[in-house]
């Protein structure tokens, strides 16, 4: 029972926080790079529209996949180790 509670707490705190921070940082970096590249090549108005659309799509897909895989694996491993120790 303690193991389950600890795993849930661990999952929520570590995985959710880690994912949110990781996603925000990744998205900001990606979007800035993407926007700079796009803006150099295109005019400003088109660039803004493209940046918003592309960043939303890219960040959504990337963060979803990355967070799902990373958090799932990390939390499973941690919970397994924690439960084994207990």
> Major beta sheet, specifics?
none
Mean pLDDT: 73
- Secondary structure: number of strands: 0
Spans of at least 5 consecutive residues whose pLDDT stays below 50 are none
Strand-and-helix sequence, N→C? HH
Compute the gyration radius: what is it? 18 Å
Q: Helicity, in percent?
A: over 70%
Note the total helix count: 2
Q: Structural class given helices, strands, pairing?
A: mainly alpha
* Coarse morphology: rod-shaped
Q: Termini separation (Å)?
A: 11 Å
Strand content: under 5%
Keywords: Membrane, Transmembrane, Transmembrane helix
Structure description:
The structure is a single chain. The chain is mostly helical. 95% of the residues lie in helices and 0% in strands. It has 2 helices and no strands. It is rod-shaped and about 60 Å long. The termini are close together. The model has no long low-confidence stretch (mean pLDDT 73). Keywords: Membrane, Transmembrane, Transmembrane helix. The chain crosses the membrane at residues 29-55.
What topology does this entry show?
Blueprint: H1 2-41, H2 44-85
Question: Can you tag this structure with a few keywords?
Answer:
86 residues; membrane; single chain; transmembrane helix; transmembrane
């Amino acid at each position: 029972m303690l193991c389950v509670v600890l795993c849930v707490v661990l999952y929520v705190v570590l995985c959710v926080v880690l994912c949110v921070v990781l996603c925000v940082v990744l998205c900001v970096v990606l979007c800035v790079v993407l926007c700079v590249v796009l803006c150099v090549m295109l005019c400003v108005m088109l660039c803004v529209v493209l940046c918003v659309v592309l960043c939303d799509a890219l960040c959504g897909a990337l963060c979803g996949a990355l967070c799902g895989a990373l958090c799932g694996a990390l939390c499973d491993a941690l919970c397994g180790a924690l439960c084994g120790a207990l």
